[in-house]
Amino acid sequence: MRMRRKKHLDERLAAVADWVYISDSEDRDFRSAVLQKDYLDLNHWFEKEQPLYLEIGCGKGRFAVEYAKKHPEHNLLAVEKSANVIVDAAETAAAEKLPNLRFLKCGAEYLERHLREKTVERIFLNFSCPFPKKSYASHRLTAPGFLQIYKRLLKDGGDIHQKTDNRQLFEFSIEQMSGFGMAFRGVSLDLHHSDFPENIMTEYESRFVALGQPIYRLEAYFPQQK
User: Fold this and answer.
1) Is the whole-model pTM more than 0.85?
2) CATH 2.60.120.10 fits 9-221, yes or no
């Protein structure tokens, strides 16, 4: 079921234009759209030139805002394809006046239209849609097509941090990442009963934890060639 468009959405987005960039590609075929480059001027957009982290599927921005507060030494670009959702996140960031947090409205398949290769230190995938039907497996954010995009965007030594409540998506991710030549660390089958030094919860995570559901976590990276 599609979310109803919020009232005054365009006006609200315009009011936070300094915090969110709206991808304006009219080409619905991402394969040709990404060839028409519209690179973000990250050094101009963020107050400081510092390592860039990327959250794909930021929702209403709880994780992004808290991460930006705790890590002023990083720039965080939070991505969300729904204007209805990203406007809330951007309004929160604007109210907090966070200099190291910005938002991009686009689908993950369009990221290479806006970001240059080898610019991202880390990618966060927090509670991505699991697309449980096998026929939609290619839409999962750890499917091979997306992993290829991430590999091009990540700097050497960069990594992917994933959290999910969905065991099937977690197993799918491990299988796909392994087949893509990635290695793992920081793997947990029950994050909230594990000894991790820092965990910033998302809106979904709080809900799942309250229901007693385990949270699955992993860090994936490409081993350095010697």
Assistant:
1) yes
2) no
